[in-house]
Design goal:
alpha/beta; 2 domains; three-stranded parallel beta sheet; 5 helices
Length: 145
Amino acid sequence: MGLIARQLEAAGIPTVCLTSARDITRAVNPPRAAFLDFPLGHTSGRPHQPELNREIVSDALRAFEVLTVPGSMLHLRYHWADDDSWKDGVMRPASDTGEDASGAKAADDRVERFDTPQYQCDADAEAAEASHGSADCMVCAGIDY
């Protein structure tokens, strides 16, 4: 995310990264970021709440106006729940030992990584092909998939 944002900025295109992973975002250091303290996968808000989604994205775009120092992060005011207890079980093994209740090691359940771009549907793949043909995307050129 940060690499692509910096490449876009170098090409004269301002960027803001909307993120739910504050520490990772700080590490990749995009030019501007807006942080939403929601579970991963819900970066623009809860599903089926289009008004909330629009508010969050609109507030994130304020980063263009209020962040003047490169690498700054805007913390958005929204909360997933009344307290932070939802974080207790997120991305953690079933026990501190890395084992589940039966004593089995916690499994790596991350999505498989591929060497080539993946698309949500055939229409997305067709649009990318129509836009770029067999040439590299000017934004993504140099990225080692």
